[in-house]
Amino acid sequence: MATIAWSDDPDEIWQVAGWVFRLVLDDIMAQYPDDLEMVAELADLRDIKGLSIDLLEPELAARVTEAIWDVATGILSGSVRSISVNSDSMTIAQYRSALRDLKRAIPRHSEPGPHPNVGGTTVWGDIRVGEAGSDQDA
Questions:
Q1: What is the model's pTM?
Q2: What is the pLDDT of residues 39-65, one digit of tens each?
Q3: Is residue 122 assigned to a domain?
C-alpha cells in the first residue's frame, strides 16, 4: 500500500496499491519534466510509498497539489495520456477509479484557481502562491 496525504484527516488521505501510487507519480513527472524540484522530490518518494503534502515546503506543496489535480483531471477527461498505455482494460478501469478517489482526497478548499476570499491569489489549502498571473504563480 502507498499513501498521499494532505493532513491527518482521513478524508484527505489517499491510500492505494503501490503500483497505482508509482504510476500517478510517473504520470506527474512525465507531464512536468521541467519542474526539476518536483520531479526530484517525487522520484525520491516513488519507492518510499508515501507522500505527505503537508510536510513539503509551501510552494512545492502547492505545485505538487496542482500537478496531481491537473494530471488526474487530464487523464480522466482524456486530454492527458497516462504513460501506462499498454495496460489491459481492467487495470485502466482500476487506475481511473483510483484517480477519481485521489481528486476527492484533495481538500475541497484546495481546488485550483483564484480563491474568492483572497483577491486573485491562487490558494491550495492554506497555501497562497502569488497573485494570479504574476511571476510568482506556481
A1: 0.78
A2: 999 999 988 889 999 999 999 999 999
A3: no
Q: SS3 of 3, please?
A: strand
> Structural domain tally of the chain?
1
CA distance readout (Å), 23 to 42, 95, 128? 11, 9, 28
* C-alpha distances out from residue 98 to 76, 105, 121, Å: 10, 10, 30
Q: Which amino acid is at 111?
A: E
Residue 53's pLDDT is 97
Give pLDDT, residue 122: 40
| Whole-number Cα distances in Å, 130 to 36, 85, 122 | 20, 36, 7
**Span 79-105, average pLDDT:** 91
> Could you list the residue range(s) of the whole structural domain that residue 21 is in?
2-108
User: 78-110 burial string, b = 16+ CB within 10 Å, else e?
Assistant: eeeebebeeeeeeeeebbeebbeebeebbbeeb
